[in-house]
Amino acid sequence: MTDAKTFLKQLRAILKQHGFQRLNANNYFYRAEFLLCLFTIQKSMYGGQYYFDVYYRLADDDPKEQNYRALCFDRRERLFTAEHETIRSIDFDDAELVSQFAPQFLARLPAIADDLAAWTDTTAFLQHFGDNFSAEQQAAIAAHTFRPE
Fold first, then answer.
1. Is residue 33 part of a domain?
2. How many domains does the chain divide into?
C-alpha cells in the first residue's frame, strides 16, 4: 500500500516531468503564452482524502492568485469523466481503495498532465471548454483579447 506522503511525492514528480512548475507544496502550474493551467492538491479538513482541482486563467496573472479571474475551474475527475473511477480523489483513510486506485491514478497521471498542458493552447482550450463561453467570449479568447469581468 502507498501512504499519502509517498503518493504525493510521486504525483509531484510526474507533474514536474510533464512541464508543470512548482508554485508551492500543493500547487503546480503550466504556463503557455496566453493561458495558465493550475493543478491544485487539496486535502480534506475532515480526513485523509485528497482532491485534485484544475484552474485555467490568463497567463499574465500571478499563478499565486488561484481563483482570481479563473476562466475555468473543475475537479480533475469531472474533466476526464470516462475515467472517473481511476482518477477520482484518493482517500488515505481507506487502505483498500488506496491500494486499488492510487497505482492506477499515478499510471494515468502522465497522460492527464499532458492533456491539461495541451489545453493551454487557445484552440485546444476552446475545443474542450468553448461551450462554457458565449460566441463573443470565444472570439476574444481566440484573439487573446479576452479579459474576465
1. yes
2. 1
